[in-house]
Design goal:
113 residues; alpha+beta; Alpha-Beta Plaits; 31% helix; N-reg_PII/ATP_PRibTrfase_C
Length: 113
């Protein structure tokens, strides 16, 4: 714990893009029910522009941010991949540094860690 009330979190975000709210709910709710994520944020639609099979594609997507223990991130990523409709889903781990102690403790408690 540092002087300003922050502690090392040993937590990570998984940044996941999904095609719609239905899939966002499947990914977020399932990961939480399985105790692989403490909570999730679903961000509003954005436009994704990318190349796929030689064509430039454009579609709306949502972002799901899953909060998990760093030690569980790879298990959560595999679970998301298994429940995701894309052939190549975007699943990126972002390790977190410090966080405010009460919130970090709550996150860890949701995961049983």
């Amino acid at each position: 714990m540092t002087d300003n009330g922050f502690q090392n979190s040993e937590m990570s975000f998984l940044y996941v893009t999904v095609p719609d709210m239905e899939i966002a709910r499947v990914i977020a709710g399932g990961a939480i029910r399985e105790k692989l994520a403490a909570c999730a944020n679903v961000l509003p639609p954005m436009t994704a522009i990318y190349e796929w099979n030689g064509d430039v594609e454009e579609q709306n997507e949502l972002i799901v941010i899953l909060k998990t223990a760093t030690k569980s991130a790879s298990v959560l990523a595999k679970w998301v991949e298994d429940h995701h409709p894309y052939d190549v889903p975007c699943i990126l781990e972002l390790p977190l540094g410090r966080g405010n102690q009460p919130y970090v403790s709550w996150l860890q408690g949701q995961l049983g860690s």
